Amino acid sequence: MSLLKEFSKGLWKENAVFKLMLGMCPVLAVTTSAENGLGMGLATTFVLVCSNSVVALLRKLIPAGVRIPAFIVIIASFVTVVQLAMEAWVYDLYQALGIFIPLIVVNCLILGRAEAFASKNPLIPALADGLGMGLGFTLGLFILGTLREFFGSGAILGVNLLGSSYHPMLLMILPPGAFITLGLLLALIKRVTARS
Q1: 64 to 41, 59, 92, 118: CA distances (angstroms)
Q2: Domain segments of the chain: what residues?
């Protein structure tokens, strides 16, 4: 098993947002801006890497009957660390992401990787898998947030690129804009991958 293969599969081949359609709740809810998408993605990546590592280290010690509850306790511990760190150091982002930070605990991507990969593999491959899947998730959130922010306000990462004469498409920063943008992105990806 190649570490590069384990890392890179999450970036594109098994991308959680564009290929596996996992974690759609935060994908659609928090991507009103590139900053929100990046913040949520990096928080999720931290939890994914740390929980994968601990699950891989404890995989032979956790009894099969309490596997899922044990994984949830491990994941919840790291989510608490992320939540407290964000509240302390990036309070505005913490406020913007709101309830979706504690909901990382039940993100099916994290629990799925713990169950499907980390509980069956040693530390280093589990770490590579968590990092690749997390960065792929972050990439998906960032792309979606960037597009929604650009069309919804004419800015990217808060920097106005189109000037005051631009009439923003407010639909793009509203909930229907998330569905429209994701649908168009998925159609584009399907078309591009079908040609190659």
Answers
A1: 30, 10, 41, 14
A2: 3-195
